[in-house]
Specification:
The structure holds 2 protein chains of 2 kinds. By secondary structure, chain A is mostly helical. Chain A has a domain of about 190 residues. Chain A has 22 helices and 2 strands. In chain A, a hairpin with a 4-residue loop joins strand 1 and strand 2. The radius of gyration of chain A is 22 Å and the shape is globular. Chain B has a domain of about 220 residues. A two-stranded antiparallel sheet of chain B has the order 1-2. In chain B, helix 15 packs antiparallel against helix 21. The chains are: A mainly alpha, B mainly alpha. At the A-B interface, helix 19, helix 20 and helix 22 of A face strand 1, helix 6, helix 7 and helix 8 of B.
Chain lengths: ~500, ~500
């Protein structure tokens, strides 16, 4: 590859990634060598960087498909829309980090920032990856940064435990993924998604069983990131151990990246592979994913009923939500991608919002037990109402983004051929189960009396992410067409 | 914004007024609530008048579009009323005003939040009856869940939180079943507008899918009505929720079940409902007899009333199952009549509870000696409930049985047994309470004051007017009824 070809690439398409990379490096250098007085403004630099990246990305709206670096980096509408979710979610989480009032972990502050950005960069590379290797490298960048972020509170036992579990489980999952990829490589002799898809679109012949094994192993490995069964056990421990913004990051950005890579690989490769003559390989494996979706919804929502620690509760609820998002993956209608995207966007706003409220209360009351919500309506009516909005959205009550997301999934499942009534039914029943634990928090806030009389104040900085999340949740719920039209 | 939107959103005036006023003294809060509850009433009378005058009330606004393959699915914000819904809207606003008035002396704590939630509930109910497509109907339907949950859970009696959860689980399941049915209609018919969907299913021949949707409707509205095995939440709500709320709950919310069954079930899927008619008739019979039998052995007045509600809802089911003019007209009559009667009953229960703090029949015995007027009102309400000629209950039961005897005489014959049992349990409960031996457990008690007498009298007048001159309702619903009958006949 000579300098001529290198220069002929449209490097401009990578502007958002470069922005994040440069800001990340800058932050780590400033954190290392900078004066202490500068360090206060470091978070704002990170926020600015992500903001600039969003602006660069928005300029690419409607740009045609491009692939550079020998098809390893792809820009298409899929990459564009999902990167937007990653960036918006990270921006909200950075605002959450800034709002911190209790200064216990001040020494770790810089590290959180550039690790967050590194993880985000990994996620963005996953969204644009056109090659198994670049996808894997992006995923590992995301994973490694996450392991460190979970374990940063090194004097905290739960943090260390969570980091350990996360690392071990994550490594096993990575091994699975690589192992599955090796089957695909063995079958097709290439790591480029385009080439693999072309190779597989012909008759696989005796390679069919190998392709199926590759499919299953790779899916199980990648299921780790989206915390679906069978790799969901790490979720509650890690969320509990990590600092709340990191939990929110794992719950939203990391999970979105997981869905992105799953859609990219499985629709890209196996969606084209013919199997047994007529159907695609993906279509024949739908039952496998459907069973995982069923188990994930079931386990996530039922175990959430027994949780008292708020972060564990949200962890199990996030497992349940991952199960819901698997449904459009299974139903394979033309709206599936749109449904996944919309649900992830809605999920980003409501989950980060809920974590933000927990973060505020956790700092004031030094506890993560559900009792921090007891009598919240007396202490701070505004915070109680805001939390109610997020909970209503998570539960899928009309007027919120969560409802539109769920309704889209229902429509997609019923429109699928053959119709997925069992999955839609499971989702319906599990939604009602989730009412119990979400409404239980509302009971705590409105009906129970607070143990100590006092007021909870929202600091000005804390209100920024809250307002943005409320606007997103309500806005997408009442005017969903804005996002849906944007997607087309 | 048309009159209908104005009406649906009018409870927000009260809500916002209360919000802006902040935490004032109880008196001011109650005054604001009482006055702003009158606004929806005035607007609903206006809507009623416009409907009678025949002017178009429907409104439509573009909302969301889905593209599934070549199909484009559009969701609109569309409101419209027919004869049945306009009457239920009027019923809602009347009962809401009375409930707000009575709760002003029953609710001692947090009245500020209580009234805000009441207005939110009223908003949901008005929306349910004004929505002209299934999605919008569902959205309003779900909106009623949240204020109900808190109203039961915060201001209810001893088992309030358990009742609230039982309410949310049963109704949540019902509404999720409804949501899947709606999604199925949306995808197959490409629309959720009532008349367009009805038009589509008239010509389509997917009998299996239609039957599936019809059963889903039966379950979803069966929870709300409630139909026999799905009723336990409703008894809890009747017994443990604050009486002012039960006025709305028994008076209007349960009628959403009847409204849904008639408007969606019979209206959109007449063919499948004809297939299901025997099942519905048997369920109706079970409701009627089971409710009546259990009402006979209760020791709590509120439990008697809860089971009596189940029994009376059985009559609505019988009317729906008859699937002829008299049957459906009777079911509509019964919805309105039971709404008024149960609102009156729980108004009286609320009045009683303020004085005695119990509704145990044994403890209350000899009530007539202390408060003759209150006891008299109870007796009149009971007579209305058991269907005494000249009151609304009689008209509705009579028309339903007229319809059911035409199509299913055997079911009708067994059903009459329920009517007899109704007389027995109503009179047993009331006589035990008012004319038993006087035990002097409560000391001196005031009889009804002016503020209590007026609401009770208003409800009583409505009951008698419908009983003596049923055409007040019959004429309004005539057109709706004819549209439904065309669907069944075709």
């Amino acid at each position: 590859m000579d300098i001529q070809t290198l220069l002929s690439f449209e490097w401009g398409m990578m502007a958002p990634e470069f922005t994040i990379l440069i800001v990340g490096i800058l932050l780590s250098l400033l954190d290392l060598f900078g004066k202490d007085t500068w360090k206060k403004s470091l978070p704002w630099l990170a926020v600015g960087g992500v903001g600039v990246a969003i602006i660069f990305l928005l300029f690419q709206y409607g740009h045609g498909d491009i692939s550079i670096l020998g098809n390893t980096y792809v820009f298409d509408s899929f990459a564009f829309y999902f990167k937007l979710i990653l960036l918006i979610a990270t921006l909200l989480i950075l605002l959450m980090v800034i709002s911190r009032t209790v200064q216990q972990e001040v020494r770790d502050r810089g590290e959180y920032l550039y690790l967050l950005l590194a993880a985000l960069l990994g996620g963005m590379m996953v969204a644009s990856g056109g090659d198994l290797i670049s996808l894997f490298v992006g995923l590992e960048l995301l994973s490694l940064s996450s392991y460190i972020m979970v374990g940063l509170r090194k004097r905290d036992v739960r943090s260390s435990e969570g980091a350990m579990k996360y690392l071990i489980n994550g490594s096993i999952a990575t091994a699975f993924t690589l192992f599955g990829m090796s089957y695909v490589f063995g079958l097709t002799g290439s790591t480029k998604l385009v080439d693999i898809a072309r190779e597989m679109s012909g008759s696989l012949g005796s390679g069919e069983p190998v392709a199926i094994i590759g499919f299953i192993i790779m899916f199980v490995g990648l299921a780790f990131k989206i915390s679906t069964v069978p790799f969901h056990m790490w979720t509650p421990d890690v969320y509990e151990g990590a600092v709340t913004p990191v939990s929110a990051f794992l719950s939203v950005v990391s999970k979105s990246a997981g869905f992105i890579i799953i859609v990219r690989i499985f629709w890209g490769i196996f969606g084209n592979a013919t199997f047994g003559g007529s159907d695609t390989l993906f279509a024949t494996m739908i039952d496998f994913i459907a069973v995982l979706a069923f188990l994930t919804m079931f386990i996530g929502n039922l175990v959430a009923l027994r949780q008292r620690n708020m972060k564990r509760l949200l962890a199990y609820s996030s497992i349940g939500h991952a199960g819901y998002i698997l449904i459009p993956l299974v139903s394979l209608t033309p709206v599936s991608l749109e449904n996944i995207w919309f649900y992830l966007l809605a999920y980003a706003f409501m989950t980060i919002g809920a974590f933000m409220v927990i973060y505020i209360l956790e700092q004031q009351k030094q506890s993560e037990d559900i009792s921090i919500f007891t009598g919240l309506y007396r202490e701070s009516p505004a915070l109680a109402i805001i939390m109610t909005i997020f909970l209503a959205s998570l539960a899928g009550i009309p007027g919120t983004a969560g409802f539109i997301g769920k309704f889209n999934i229902f429509v997609g499942a019923v429109a699928a051929d053959p119709a997925q009534y069992i999955l839609a039914g499971t989702m319906a029943v599990m939604t009602v189960v989730s009412y119990i634990y979400y409404f239980n928090i509302m009971v705590q806030m409105y009906i129970r009396k607070p143990q100590l009389e006092g007021t909870t104040k929202i600091a000005r900085l804390q209100s920024v992410p809250l307002i943005l999340c409320v606007a997103g949740t309500i806005g997408l719920g009442v005017f969903p067409f804005i996002a849906l039209n944007f997607f087309h | 914004m048309g009159t209908l939107s104005l009406l649906v959103f009018s409870p927000f005036i009260g809500l916002i007024a209360l919000l802006l006023a902040g935490k004032q003294s109880d008196n001011i809060t109650k005054r604001i609530a009482a006055f702003s509850s009158l606004i929806p009433l005035i607007l609903s009378i206006l809507v009623y008048a416009q409907y009678q005058a025949g002017s178009g009330l429907s409104e439509i606004l573009r909302w969301v579009q889905f593209e599934v393959g070549e199909q484009t699915l559009t969701l609109n914000y569309e409101l419209a009323v027919d004869g049945f819904s306009v009457i239920l809207i009027l019923l809602t606003t009347i009962i809401a005003v009375l409930a707000v008035f009575t709760s002003s002396w029953q609710i001692k704590q947090n009245s500020h939040l209580f009234f805000m939630l009441m207005f939110l509930l009223e908003f949901g109910i008005l929306g349910v009856f004004s929505a002209d497509n299934l999605i919008l109907f569902f959205i309003f339907f779900e909106i009623t869940l949240i204020p109900m949950f808190f109203l039961i859970g915060k201001w209810g009696g001893t088992d309030r939180e358990e009742s609230a959860f039982s309410y949310i689980i049963y109704n949540g399941l019902g509404s999720m079943v409804l949501l899947i049915a709606i999604a199925a209609i949306f995808v197959t018919a490409g629309t959720t507008n009532f008349s367009e969907a009805a038009e589509y299913f008239r010509t389509s021949n997917e009998a299996g899918l239609q039957l599936g949707i019809a059963i889903a409707f039966l379950i979803a509205f069966g929870v709300k009505l409630p139909i026999f095995p799905l009723h336990s939440w409703m008894v809890k709500v009747h017994v443990h929720a604050p009486p002012a709320l039960v006025m709305i709950h028994a008076g209007v919310l349960l009628k959403i079940g009847a409204y849904g069954l008639i408007k969606f079930g019979v209206g959109i899927l007449p063919a499948s409902f004809t297939t299901l008619a025997p099942l519905i008739a048997i369920l109706g019979l079970v409701n009627l007899l089971y409710g009546a039998y259990l009402a006979l052995v209760q020791e709590e007045l509120r439990s008697v009333l809860a089971y009596s509600s189940i029994s009376h809802m059985g009559i609505i089911l019988l009317g729906v199952a008859a699937l002829n003019e008299a049957g459906i007209q009777g079911a509509i009559f019964q919805s309105v009549s039971h709404g008024l009667i149960s609102a009156l009953f729980f108004l009286l229960v609320g009045i009683l509870l303020v004085r005695t703090r119990t509704t145990n029949l044994r403890k209350l015995s000899g009530l007539a000696r202390l408060t003759p007027v209150l006891a008299g009102f109870f007796l009149v309400a009971a007579l209305a409930g058991l269907g005494l000629p000249g009151m609304s209950g009689f008209v509705s039961e009579f028309t339903v049985f007229l319809g059911i005897f035409e199509n299913m005489p055997v079911i009708g014959a067994i059903g009459t047994l329920g009517i007899i049992m109704t007389v027995v349990y109503m009179l047993r409960a009331i006589l035990k309470m008012t004319y038993g031996t006087y035990r002097n457990m409560f000391g001196d008690m005031n009889d009804l004051g002016m503020g209590e007498l007026i609401p009770a009298t208003i409800l009583l007048i409505c009951i008698v007017v419908i009983g003596v001159y049923p055409n007040t309702i019959a004429l309004t619903v005539q057109q709706t009824l004819e549209t439904l009958l065309v669907g069944i006949g075709g």
